[in-house]
Structure prediction request, 798 residues.
Amino acid sequence: MLWYKAWRESQARFLLSALAIAGLCAAFVVFHREGMLSVEDGHLTYIGYIWRITYKTYLRELFAILVLLLGVGGLLRERAYGTAGFTLALPVSRLGLIWARAGVGFLEVAALSFLPALVIPALSPFVHQSYPWTQALQFGALWTVGGALIFTMGFLASVIFASEYSAPVAALLILLLYSVIADLPFLERYPVDIHDIISGVGMRYFQPNTSLLTGPLPWTAQAVILLIVCGLIALAGRITQQQDF
Amino acid sequence: MSYKSIIETRDLTKRYGNFEAVHALNLKIAGPGITGFLGRNGAGKSTTIKMLLDMTHPTAGTGTVLGRSIGDPASNREMRRQVAYVAEDKQLYAYMTVEQLIRFTKSFYTDWRADVERHLLKRYQLPMRRKVKALSKGMRTKLALLLALSRRPALLILDEPSEGLDPVSIEELLQSLVAAAAEGTTVFFSSHQIAEVERIADRVCIVDHGKLAMDLSLDDIRQDYRRITLGFAAQPPSDDFHMQGIEQIRTSGRQVVVLASHNADAIVERARSLEAVSVDVTPISLREVFLDTVKENDALV
Amino acid sequence: MMLWYKAWRESRMRFAMIAVAVAAICVYAVLFHDQIQANGIPIRPGLRDGAYSENIYQFVYSGTAKGVFALLVIFLGLGGLLRERAHRTAIFTLALPVSRMRLILTQIVVGLAEMAALALLPALLIPSLSPLVHQSFPLAEALHFSVLWFGCGTIIFASAFFLSVVFGGEYIAPVACYIALISQSLVAQWAPLRPYRLNLMWTMGEFGTRHWDPQHNVLLSSPLPWTRLLIIALIASGLFALSARITQRQDF
Prediction:
């Protein structure tokens, strides 16, 4: 039931996000002719267009912000609403509460990550185009892990900042700072920029000429990211255990 | 502005979908004095108060408070200058300190009394520099009361004012309300603590299932209201007790219990004429009136 | 007066965080302009490579700072009576002898004032800090962008404000606002609408309208798009008015 509670507290945000992502993917496919004209480089293939508008720019940016906002909430917010006492009186550990919220959040991130993989390849034949399922699913996998990291930034911020809007603002600034640091010259050679990892830009497994993922996915990097995610959630748990309510 | 009733409503109704929270409520509260507003949970007390203060819009009906229409926002706003209100929740701005919140609230009213403020601050022992979010529930309640009582409002509306207070503070609160009424303020407060209402109120309005069930003065209850318990040897007559003064009749086996608002002697006479074998006349408390009233309504609903 | 104080207290933390972020980006852009340039941030075609003003433009006015401003202004617009209802202070606020219109107007004015301050920050910092690195950036240019940021920010703020009046959920309003912002950028790119330059982010960044001034070795903007800014202001006003109307009818 803790999972149910976490789901109920995030379902409106999740459903709105899912609707937006699915709607935009559908629009990208249905209006691909106008879309391809509007993209600066006029010599794009359909696959190149889908990659650029979905996995590189607009949808990726929206996805990052939406999963960040999925991460906020938690016991500090419950304290503001006066329900923290009720929740903490339940015979469950604070870590259990944290992991339930994180678990539901990760499932939601995964669902959002794979939405483009469901919509784009399925709708493309209707406009006499095609986008490979394998490509879409691989991007889905990249987005799931990358999205989990971004989700965790929102999650951690909401464990530290009690105020309703300070937490998401702080989370966005953390994401920004992370992006700036990852772009520093001495770090550029390492695959640390999550935006590049999930879009493939500059990565060995991505072929810019064809806009396709060609090499094996960076499973090591993914595993490291997941470890970092788990570490950050554990940190959030530790902070929560020490807090007074 | 002159007006007859401090609070007056005509068929005031509030519907939420199919649910009627308040149904054709006709209240008439005269001032000054203290009126208790009683009802069970979900009876419609808070909804009524919110409609009076333009926080909730009535579905039907009209009302005036201090002679001003509750349905006209501008008029209602002017009325609120003369009304002090303590909500049931007593949630205040968590990010402000006690001092900041007092300064904030004070700025809206010309009738603020600094001497009363100082007196209540000292009595309630409220820490000026502490943020509201760091106050206990009881202290927050005291702060909410201070914000209301540090004025000379024409009308003081309180929703469960004693909730969260310790017995000493409750006593102080009741004394403050009596003092306010003595100074000319009309006090209208809803409470589940019937004993408190009975101690200080002049009148009581009982609302049940969104309707006004009873509107009576406590003096009437003390002087005239009686519970008459009648025992009969055989099945008691059901149709012979339509007399003036009978508010309720309940039959249980061979016993009939009558709630009489007046005319008790005549009712006893009638009972004896119907061969009642036992007659017991007892004074009745507000609590018993309340419980009898809501039980009666349950039977009717 | 105290309503303004309340609105300020309820938004000051957000404002401060955004201000620090925008200021930090501006200071970084000035003090580390050499490293930024060496890092090879691509200069758009048609612009001269290597000029200080272009780097500032790329990093601040068309890049990071602009993005931060646009994304975070949303949070200045959030709050209001529906959020107060969730925190159960709405009753206290509504019991005050002030109209709901006044409560809303106060929140709007304070929010817009904060947004104006944020929009002016780069204009305060960049021209004044540039001499420290033996460079200069025209104040007029900086103020030009401040006007654009404020103008375009107004509709982002108004959208967030409107959505927080409509949606009571804690984070639904910002989610909806971000979706609207991204969707607006996409729709504005649609070929039939492109000539009208409706893309807010492009307007804020003066994309495609700047020209090189060889005499002063600086990148300059075109005249301010007053018609577009006026239309934006009208739409924002409409959203504010609609928000006020909805709030007046709401039950608390």
About this structure: Chain A is about 75% helix and 0% strand. Strands of chain A lie at 206-207, 212-213. The longest strand of chain A covers residues 206-207.
